[in-house]
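Supplementary Methods S3. Complex input for the iron/sulfur cluster-bound model.
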Amino acid sequence: MLYRPYGKTGIEMSIFTFGAMRITFNESKTLRADWSDKEANAVATIKRALELGINHIDTARGYDNSERLVGVAMRELGREKFILTTKAMADLSYDETSKSIEESLRQMGIDRIDILDLHGINTFDTLKNSLGKNGSLRAAIEAQKKGLVSHIGFSSHAGPDVIIAGMETGYFSAISILYWWTNQRNSAAIQKARDMDIGILILSAAEKGGLLFKPTDSLLKACAPFSPLALTHKWLFERGVTTIAIGASNPGEFDAHLPALQNNATLTTEESLALESWTNKEIEKLGKDRCAICYKCMPCPEGVNIPEILRLRNLCQTFDMIEFGIMRYNLLEHADDWFPGNKADKCTRCGKCEPLCPSGLGIPDLISQTHSLLLSQPKSRLWK
Ligand code: SF4
Ligand code: SF4
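Predicted complex, serialized as structure tokens:
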């Protein structure tokens, strides 16, 4: 394992984090007799993380019984071996946040949270409210003064404007954000975090980054002989991110990520060429219809999430990533500000977006085709 300083916190963090959202089970729907097996799986998964040198666990109050299971593992494996991050929803009031922190401590059976993230600063409104007199930040700072929390960060599914505004408040030591090879929209936020020496955790690189733990044949071919997951992880490490969360649900699910540690987690010349070939394949396949995901066409008056829809189109048309496309497309309109915007059938062909597109794309036609390709049953987010 390799380790990097987590911004200015003084913490040396493993470049992989164990994301504890998938070791959970629904206690009300699980027979009590089956709990011990599930708890044993959670402990075994965290033990495997520890064996690999992973020293950071990322959980949240909202991840079902994740905190309780992390607590079980802490008692078995040793609290002192881990840096623990948990989250309290950013839109809670002062009182609610204080209670959330107390409950996190109780569930995990610990007396201090290393990093408390205000969870879901996805909009300017949430940021503003969290900073207010009755907001979540004041409760987090008070918990910090009492020694219950060491560092305060925030998580966000937003684009760079909201994330940069959050960092510029000066209150936060760490961010947990979405940034992947397949969606580089947050490059400016990454650069800002590096400039401000703020710790950077990347969420869901394998899943929302493209279901890269089960790549399509055409993606495998484009990246051959390398693993798309390892290539894209290495690309992230080279961009200066501190750590990438691996949401393993059992001890075996770490293995696919491990090739990214080779060569000091940096891309070899051959691997850089393989990533270049990924881009070239898109250009070759999509020609003048390739969306550059520049966001210059936004906002759409009907709230259509044009860049996200065309990003999915790029991946589906080039690499047959239909399963991924369906998973993401049908989450639109069902995930609030965690994945905002409307589907393409809300387009009224008002004509506003096309003149703004530097690539001259025929946006209404392209998004309408993508709608026909990907429309399926509505999806919903797993966790808050
Ligand atoms: S043409 Fe459609 S997608 Fe473009 S701005 Fe108008 S409503 Fe939005
Ligand atoms: S402006 Fe054009 S290239 Fe940029 S995101 Fe919108 S559709 Fe894509």
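The first strand starts at residue 3 and ends at 5. Residues 290-374 form one domain.
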